[in-house]
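Structural prep section.
Before we set up the soaks we want a predicted structure of the protein with FE2/S2 (inorganic) cluster in place, mainly to decide which crystallisation condition to try first. Input record follows.
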Amino acid sequence: MTWKQLLTSSLGKKYLMGATGFFLIIYLIVHASVNALIFYDDNGATFNVVAHFMLHNYFIRFLEIGLFAVFILHIVQGLMLWKQNTSARKINYYRQNFPREIKWYSRYMGWLGTFILLFLVLHLYNFWAGTKHELYFKGPSNDLYKEMKKVFTSPLLFTLYMLGLVSLLFHLLQGFQSAFQTFGINNRRWIPIVRRIGIFYSIIICIVFALMPIAFMAGWLQ
Amino acid sequence: MEHYTMNLTLKVWRQKNRQEKGHFETYDMKDILSEMSFLEMFDVLNERLILENKEPVVFDQDCREGICGACSMYIDGRAHGPWQKNTVCQLHMRAYKDGDTIVVEPWRSAAFPIIKDLMVDRKAFDRIIEAGGFISVNTGNAVDANSTPVDRAKSEEAFDSATCIGCGACVAACPNSSAVLFVGAKISQLALLPQGDPERKARVINMVDQMDKEGFGNCGNIYNCEAECPKGISVENIARMNREYLGAFSSSEMQTRPNPAKHNGV
Ligand code: HEM
Ligand code: SF4
Ligand code: FES
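Run finished without errors. Recording the tokens verbatim:
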């Protein structure tokens, strides 16, 4: 069996989703931790130091390329799977009901992912484009903390961020345990533990991210 | 159990052949007994249609005791109807009450084309089995039954996987029309036993390969297959297949055999 055979098989595509999903899960921990520095009550001084360091460190920027690649793989493969899966049933049921134990969000990973993607475009425009402008086009120096304050005190953007986070929450609630199942880590001993960790992780990550806009909006952070 | 009769409205999918578009036909059913099975109600309907010189509703059935996997109806949005771990033939009319409307559709999946009305072509499953769902045994004298030791717990687990009756409800119920529960069960029942070990790696590669060729969707780990399976086949079987496949890919002997022979007999 060749690599091509593996990665074009139905199971191989899922391994790719699971592997990139795992990577993104870890990335979110790093992202949330670094951003949580804004809660260090010094008007963003510490946060800006770290942000400046990350922007000007070659190793971090190299990792950033990897992150982009992983995101693109996950998104392209996800959208292709979604299309393939919907076309595997040419005529839909007139009526299809699901028993209570089937989580509604597990059936909407494609939509949830699309919402995250739309959010991602907005997010990169809000926070990433400016830093790159500074770096490559000698644009004005970015005070990311101030940017955050500007973005998160806008009611429209605040709402869009909250919607993005809700999508992420449900994507993760399904995705976390799903990735384990994809790699065959599911049996009576481990799956209840994996499920609990997944729920815990998804909720904590989304709460930490949500607290940032909330803190600015509510005026806890100035 | 209380005996009663009921009047029902049946909405049944009628489709002349694979090409025709198909539509719902509504039938009023009078005096249906609570003791009847769901298929017996269809017998009543079909006798009536024949007497009226109309085409009877075509549906699959054979054993009518929940073991062959032939019956296949999507009833009110559920594979095999409202009862858990049950086949249509074992669904009884006591599940319904007077005045109910029941919607009956065929299994819907691009890999299961409709033959007529409620009967679909499930040969895709047969081709997956032909691709590797067997063990190769030389003919000759029967081997003594106890010459191959089998772990008791594993034989129980293999048996659980082997209770799959190949009905296709998992595909029908899956929002993605994926066949992984069926294929996972068929791979597991052999992978768990020493008799299945010699062909283990080629088997999983060939069967997954055939599954993909048949046009089923990809698993989304939604688990409606397990919920709707009449035999309660666990999604652990899917996880096992995922492990087996990755294991087969990772082994060096499969690397040197890009296309493992279909019939790699002993
Ligand atoms: C930080 C963001 C994201 C994280 C942490 C994440 C994580 C995950 C995880 C862990 C899975 C489960 C993989 C598996 O079942 O093996 C998954 C599935 C999926 N993701 Fe994402 N994802 C993210 C963003 C996106 C985006 C932007 C899209 C864009 C369309 C997307 C589309 C999908 C789809 C369609 C699936 C379902 C694949 C399937 O089961 O067939 N995801 N994601
Ligand atoms: S796994 Fe269950 S639902 Fe699927 S074919 Fe076997 S018995 Fe039917
Ligand atoms: S007719 Fe055999 S299982 Fe229903």
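Observations: Chain A touches chain B through 44 residues (CB under 8 Å).
Flagged for discussion at group meeting.
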